[in-house]
Structures are given as C-alpha cells and as structure tokens.
UniProtKB/TrEMBL annotation:
This is Regulatory protein, yteA family. Pfam families: zf-dskA_traR (PF01258). Residues 90-116 form the Zinc finger DksA/TraR C4-type domain. Residues 12-21, 219-230 have a biased composition (Basic and acidic residues). The lineage of its organism: Bacteria, Bacillati, Bacillota, Bacilli, Bacillales. The keyword Metal-binding applies. Residues 1-21, 206-230 are annotated as: Disordered. Keywords: Metal-binding, Zinc, Zinc-finger. InterPro entries: DnaK_N (IPR037187), YteA (IPR014240), Znf_DskA_TraR (IPR000962). It comes from Marininema halotolerans.
C-alpha cells in the first residue's frame, strides 16, 4: 500500500511528465503531422511522383508518424494514471487487481499493469488484430498442452517441415544432421515403443509398405534389403 509521501511524489512526477509531453508535441506541431505531406515537402501533388522519387521524404514522414503516435500514447497513459489517482484506484493492476510494487511504479509511474500482465500486453501489441479471434497460424490447433494424443496442428507442421521451409533451420540451430534440425526431431512419430519402429517384412525379408507404423523405417529397410540382394 502506497503511503502519502510516495503517492505525492509519484503524482508530481506524472504531472511533470504530462507537461513535458504536451509542450513537446505543441512545439514540434505533433512532429509535423498537422501539415499534409505534400505541403511539407513542397510538392503540389504526389500522384505524378514515383514512390522512389520521394523515398527519403516518405521515410522521414513514417518516422515522424511513429514518434508522434508513441508520444501521444504515453501522454494518454500519464493522463489515465492521474485519473486513477483521483479515483483512488492507482497502484493496482487493472487485470488481476493485485497491488503493483512501489519499485515498479517509481520506474514507470504511468503503468496500470503488474509485470506479468504487462508482458501479455506488450506481446499482443505486436500481433495482428484478427489474431484475437484466430490466434497464430498452426498455434490455434496445437493441443500438446491439453494431453490430446490426436493428430493436431503441430503434427501437421512437422509433417511438412521435413521437406523444407522458406527459413532454413540450419541458420538458427545446431545439428550434425539435417534430420536433427526440425522442430522436436527427437519425438517418436508413428510409434510409441522402440520395437514398433522396426519395418514389417514379408517371407523374403523385403519390408512391406503400408503395414509398418513408421514410414521412415520402411524406406530405410527397403534400401538395406535392395543393397543386400543386388
């Protein structure tokens, strides 16, 4: 629980930060966002220009837009923190309701999240809005954490990953063999016990396709049989 001295100090800091941000945005005219891009670069129209002709100006405009958005979001967070102080709700996480440690408030006075829920908020900001419903590709069908033994999204990904991806895994992982560079390569696929990975063979010793629980074992067994019976 924050005491009066701590609360007063945090309030002064927030009021000072609010004044600083307001002055900053006012002095630089919201990073030039108050003026249209064509007027800012002295062009009558942007339609007759190839994007490459104004590439530098476009980059600077995008940078200013991002900086302006960042300052406006920070100003909004500061103002919301001051409102929570007036309503006597300051210092509690808006998600779980737990008290936020003073050390965290001292470092980030405008925060309304505890450290755990702040991580969730930051991660969600980096993902497309539609994933609030859809979740990430494949991930929405990953059922490993639910103890589901059925064929799920992870199994589907592993089935196609071994044929290669647009991002070669050897750039990111260590391994002595390409078969060791895929996700969960040590996982048993198609069998549970070690004996089940052996290929099923006919009376002549040739592995039979479509019978073994492990296609890789069947293929390897066929190669060995053909080499030994040439």
């Amino acid at each position: 629980m924050l005491n009066e001295e701590q609360l007063s100090g945090l309030k002064r800091h927030l009021e000072g930060e609010k004044e600083r941000l307001q002055k900053k945005l006012s002095d630089n005219h919201h990073y030039g966002m108050e003026e249209g891009m064509n007027n800012a670069i002295g062009e009558l129209s942007g339609y007759d220009n190839h994007p490459a002709d104004i590439g530098t100006e476009l980059f600077e405009r995008g940078k200013d837009l991002a900086l302006n958005e960042d300052d406006e979001e920070q100003l909004e967070e500061v103002e919301m923190a001051l409102l929570r102080m007036e309503a006597h709700h300051y210092g509690s996480c808006v998600v779980c309701g737990k008290e936020i440690p003073y050390e965290r408030l001292e470092a980030v006075p405008e925060t309304s999240y505890c450290i755990d829920h702040q991580r969730d908020k930051d991660i969600s900001n980096r993902r497309p809005a539609e994933e609030k419903v859809l979740e990430r590709p494949f991930a929405r069908t990953f059922h490993d954490q639910q103890d589901d033994p059925g064929f799920d999204g992870e199994d589907a990904w592993q089935a196609v990953e071994r044929y290669g991806t647009s991002n070669p895994p050897d750039y990111f992982r260590d391994g002595e063999d390409y078969n060791e560079l895929t996700e969960d390569h040590e996982e048993r696929i198609g069998f549970v016990e070690e004996v089940e990975k052996l290929a099923v063979a006919g009376v002549d010793g040739r592995p039979i396709e479509g019978v073994s629980m492990n296609d890789d074992a069947t293929d390897q067994g066929k190669e060995e049989w053909e080499q030994n019976n040439q």
